[in-house]
């Protein structure tokens, strides 16, 4: 069998989500996390990240971009997305409070009537603020 790299752009939405879960899992491994994919959005989470300390569990929602939703508030969710070669992992409610203060999303139709808002790209004014949630990792195996 000859393995060939796939083209991400040719994947369907579900395949892209699975692909991104695997990529993010590799990065989270560098931070001591093991991930467990959930078959449905359990309490808003796509997967659980369990830390090697034995006591830290993160319920994570995987998104295609910086996003906030009213339905996620109060659920202790973390949101992960990829942009520009970096992954971001942030506590939804904590960052939502700050973003509502720093931007005008709270007065948009998307937020007020549809219950959510996502940024096509991280706005310049939020890039520095969001940098503390940037994570990076190496998907290469450790040499022995």
- Main sheet record: 6 strands, mixed
Helix content: 25-40%
- The fraction of residues in strands falls at 25-35%
The pLDDT mean sits at 92
Task: Give the C-alpha Rg.
Answer: 16 Å
CATH architecture: 3-Layer(aba) Sandwich
Secondary-structure-based class equals alpha+beta
Name of the CATH first level? Alpha Beta
Question: What is the third-level CATH name, the topology?
Answer: Trna Endonuclease, Chain: A, domain 1
Query: What would the principal axes of the Cα set say about the shape?
Result: globular
List the secondary-structure elements in sequence, H or E.
Answer: HEEEEEEHHEHE
List the main descriptive attributes of the protein structure presented here:
144 residues; alpha+beta; six-stranded mixed sheet; 28% helix; 31% strand; globular; PD(D/E)XK endonuclease domain-containing protein
How would you explain this protein's 3D organization?
This is PD(D/E)XK endonuclease domain-containing protein. The mean pLDDT is 92. The longest helix is centred in the N-terminal third of the chain and has 17 residues. The chain has 144 residues and is an alpha+beta fold. It has a single domain, classed as Trna Endonuclease, Chain: A, domain 1 (3-Layer(aba) Sandwich), CATH 3.40.1350. Helices cover 28% and strands 31% of the residues. It is globular and about 55 Å long. The strands form 2 sheets. Strands 1-2-3-5-6-8 form a 6-stranded mixed β-sheet.
Write the layout of secondary structure elements.
Blueprint: H1 13-29, E1 33-42, E2 45-51, E3 57-62, E4 67-69, E5 77-83, E6 86-91, H2 92-102, H3 109-114, E7 116-118, H4 124-130, E8 134-135
Parallel strand pairs: 3-5
Antiparallel strand pairs: 1-2, 2-3, 4-7, 5-6, 6-8
């Amino acid at each position: 069998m000859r393995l060939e790299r796939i083209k991400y752009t040719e994947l369907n939405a579900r395949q892209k989500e699975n692909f991104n879960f695997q990529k993010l899992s590799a990065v989270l491994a560098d931070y001591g996390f093991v991930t467990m994919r959930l078959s449905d959005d359990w309490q808003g989470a796509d997967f659980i990240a369990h830390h090697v300390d034995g006591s830290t569990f993160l319920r994570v929602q995987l998104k295609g971009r910086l996003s906030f939703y009213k339905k996620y508030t109060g659920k202790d969710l973390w949101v992960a997305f990829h942009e520009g070669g970096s992954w971001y992992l942030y506590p939804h409610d904590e960052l939502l409070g700050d973003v509502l203060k720093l931007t005008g999303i709270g007065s948009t139709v998307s937020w007020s009537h549809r219950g959510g808002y996502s940024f096509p790209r991280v706005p310049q004014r939020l890039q520095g603020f969001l940098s503390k949630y940037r994570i990076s990792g190496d998907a290469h195996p450790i040499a022995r």
